[in-house]
């Protein structure tokens, strides 16, 4: 059994479990699924700075913070107790493309060439952590949701604005991966 | 139980609609759902930067399969909840919100998409990556908070 759990899970199994999160949250406590709002609640709790957007009763929305704490804990449990002993399998075409960009580590979920602590204070860190993270936080809030709030919850509830937002997420991702990333990697 | 109108922070995509207030212990159930969610993220390797690269290079069906399946399952069950008027555990009516279109979904969506392909993470996987021990991602998280805060600060000046 543990052997089976340790293997990478099939996309359909993961998809079903993620999809089930939507009705689960609705039925256990009338909560609409959405993760990026946790970032807003943390801003509202820590540094509201009299900004109207952060002046609300964040404690009433605390469930979202419990949820993301769970996600963090789940990441810890899966990595430390249920992890796959073998390196991640990446599509050979992707490996080839990324090798051409200068990525050398294909053994971890995140390439050590980019996502290592040593890179924090380098130009790589500035782009992949600081600027990338800023765009994720700014963009999701500007769009009013992320992959969970728009793509999964919003489309599950047949919301046209969520379909538009999801299309824009994808367009942004395609542009970055295929046009900007090759230019960015020239910096290193 | 009759539902009263609940006031919300403006445009929260994941509002708490439960009338009955919840204690710390009651909130723990969301942490449990979150934990399962985080385990799925890691075990299906959704938190991997490589999976996001494969997706945006159209070199793997994996992420499309995950998101597509999740949407179909969510859609069917949300439909059933509405159709059969299924109540929450506390007997309340399930409240779903219609979203209104604004240009933020386009501009913000594009900005998030660009950032998603760099970091390999949307906000959910960000937490799971940190939990998995990729400590550098904590910087990404802090920066995402700064981005959210900056949006709040500039909100009135941005086109919507």
From TrEMBL, chain A:
Membrane topology per record: Multi-pass membrane protein
A Gene Ontology term for the protein's cellular component: plasma membrane
Location in the cell: Cell inner membrane
UniProt keyword terms in alphabetical order: Cell inner membrane, Cell membrane, Membrane, Transmembrane, Transmembrane helix, Transport
Highest taxon of source: Bacteria
Alphabetized Pfam families for the sequence: Sulf_transp
Chain segments annotated as transmembrane: 12-30, 62-82, 120-142, 163-185
Similarity comment: Belongs to the TsuA/YedE (TC 9.B.102) family.
Protein name, per record: Sulphur transport domain-containing protein
Organism (species): Arcicella aurantiaca
Organismal lineage: Bacteria, Pseudomonadati, Bacteroidota, Cytophagia, Cytophagales
TrEMBL record, chain B:
InterPro entries recorded: Sulf_transp_TsuA/YedE
UniProt cross-references to Pfam families, sorted A to Z: Sulf_transp (PF04143)
Assigned keywords, A-Z: Membrane, Transmembrane, Transmembrane helix
Transmembrane annotation, as ranges: 30-50, 62-81, 106-128, 134-154
Protein's name in the database: Uncharacterized protein
Organism expressing this protein natively: Arcicella aurantiaca
């Amino acid at each position: 059994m543990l052997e089976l759990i340790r293997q990478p899970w099939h996309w359909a199994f993961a998809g079903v479990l993620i999809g089930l999160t939507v009705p689960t949250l609705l039925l256990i406590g009338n909560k609409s699924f959405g993760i990026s709002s946790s970032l807003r609640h943390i801003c509202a709790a820590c540094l509201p700075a009299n900004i109207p957007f952060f002046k609300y009763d964040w404690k009433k929305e605390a469930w979202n913070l419990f949820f993301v704490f769970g996600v963090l804990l789940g990441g810890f449990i899966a990595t430390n107790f249920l992890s796959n002993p073998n390196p991640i399998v990446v599509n050979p075409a992707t490996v080839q493309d990324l090798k051409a960009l200068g990525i050398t580590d294909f053994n971890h979920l995140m390439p050590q060439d980019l996502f290592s602590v040593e890179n924090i204070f380098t130009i790589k860190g500035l782009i992949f952590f600081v600027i990338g993270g800023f765009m994720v936080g700014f963009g999701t809030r500007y769009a009013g949701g992320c992959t969970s709030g728009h793509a999964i919850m919003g489309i599950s509830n047949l919301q046209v604005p969520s379909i538009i937002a999801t299309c824009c997420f994808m367009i942004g991702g395609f542009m970055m991966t295929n046009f900007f990333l090759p230019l960015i990697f020239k910096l290193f | 139980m009759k539902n009263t109108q609940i006031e919300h922070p403006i445009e929260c995509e994941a509002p708490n609609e439960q009338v009955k207030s919840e204690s710390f212990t009651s909130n723990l159930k969301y942490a449990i759902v979150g934990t399962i969610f985080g385990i799925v993220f890691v075990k299906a390797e959704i938190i991997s930067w490589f999976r996001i690269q494969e997706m945006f290079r159209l070199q793997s069906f994996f992420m499309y399969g995950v998101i597509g399946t999740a949407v179909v399952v969510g859609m069917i069950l949300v439909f059933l909840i509405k159709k059969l008027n299924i109540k929450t555990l506390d007997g309340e009516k399930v409240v779903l919100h219609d979203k209104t279109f604004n240009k933020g979904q386009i501009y913000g969506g594009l900005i998030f998409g660009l950032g998603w392909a760099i970091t390999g993470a949307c906000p959910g996987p960000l937490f799971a990556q940190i939990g998995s021990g990729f400590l550098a991602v904590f910087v990404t998280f802090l920066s995402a908070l700064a981005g959210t805060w900056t949006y709040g600060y500039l909100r009135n000046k941005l086109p919507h």
